[in-house]
Amino acid sequence: MIPKLKSVDSQEETTHNPLYVPVAGKFWISHCFALLWLCISIYIAHPWLEDLAYHVSYPLALLIIGGLAYIPGYMNAFLVISLILDRQPPSKNENPQDDITILIAAHNEEDKILQTLQYIDRQDYLGKVMVIVIDNCSTDETVNEVRKAKKKLSIDIRLVHEKKPGKFHALNYALKFVSTPYFITLDADTLLHRSSIRYLVSRMKSSPEEVCAVAGSVLAKNSRENLLTKMQEWDYFLGIASIKRLQGLYQGTLVAQGAYSLYKTQCIKEVGGWPDAIGEDIVLTWRLLGRKWKVYFEPCAVAFTEVPSSFKHLVRQRARWARGMIEGLHEVKPWKQPQIYVKYLTGINLIMPYLDLTFTLCWIPGLILAFFGNFLIVGPATLFVVPLKLISYSFLYFYQRNYVFKRLKLRIRKNIIGFIFYFLCYQMIMSPVSVYGYLQEILKFKRKWK
């Protein structure tokens, strides 16, 4: 069930934090705390290391514990302090009136496209909005639904056709028709909060000139379907949102996701549009960052998207995301990124395959062994990472509730069962799926849009 998406009264924030910490200060403070946490965890886990080394050798034990405890603990500590220190500046003007274009690539979206367009039509944005729907080889009634919307709705809708299959082909074709200084990409199954576009454009207009894109906040709209969607609700609300906020703080959001993001038209044209990649939005964002441009994140620009409701579709989606990350690393090497924060953020992705592989091959079998009383791999020491995850989730939950949802007049749905399974089991699904995605990219499996 979709929440009632009411408009939000515009108001400028006048509160000022007298203790201002620059971004560089936040970066190094967070690292110092994370290093302290790492030292403590190494000390506490020393008996575990010695015991495991006795059975598998010291180097292998170090690799296993490093992937299960040391590095995840360090990263979680860095995340927690960064979120605590994050203070996003208020927008200078919450009622921009710039003309914008929205691009929607659609392939067999007859049951969703009309509702998506209706939610765009209800926006409280004061500028002119042009919508370009790109029919990409649809074989259903998508085109007729768009034509129906053109007659029924007040927004300016243009329907174009791209015969080459692939989302990047569709978006690049539509880019030729964009004449506004800014444009938004929106998935055909994604619904916008009534004030979403206003907040997204406002963040761009309030940002430095070198900011070329702003990622919106994407949440799950079909979380009530089953346990899988209930877990994903928390992943989007806490997991993905926390990473976006961390990256936005350091001015290098690594994915201005195609599902809902705002771009400067000239910047996208300068980098040649979207690349021929399964993770076209990831590679595009890294190209933008490689030009010394910055990508921000706006948590109040909320959109609700349809998350996979079957295990098969979830595996396809997350394997595609994992492949996209590898494509991005191949396209722009982290050490070649011109900004120090982006070097670090993209550099983290270099070790993600190692962490996912360690979790898949060691944590899951170790958990099974622990169930039978063998705590060689998974034992009490591994629980040292749990408090940090709970702290980061708690902090972000209160931030989302008080700063975002309260401001947007939305309510957080009670989903306790979903959270329990998300916290305890979700990573045991995601890591093997990511490993599967890495293998797909290495073996060059055929790409699929959906």
Automatic annotation (TrEMBL):
Keyword Transmembrane: yes
Alphabetic keyword roster: Glycosyltransferase, Membrane, Transferase, Transmembrane, Transmembrane helix
InterPro entries the record matches: Nucleotide-diphossugar_trans
SUPFAM superfamilies: Nucleotide-diphospho-sugar transferases (SSF53448)
A Pfam family it matches: Glyco_tranf_2_3
TM regions (residue ranges): 27-46, 58-85, 354-375, 381-399, 419-439
Matches recorded under Gene3D superfamilies: Spore Coat Polysaccharide Biosynthesis Protein SpsA, Chain A
Record has DNA repair as a keyword: no
Coiled coil segments of this chain: none
Family indicated by similarity: Belongs to the glycosyltransferase 2 family.
This protein's name: Glycosyltransferase family 2 protein
Organism from which the protein derives: Neobacillus driksii
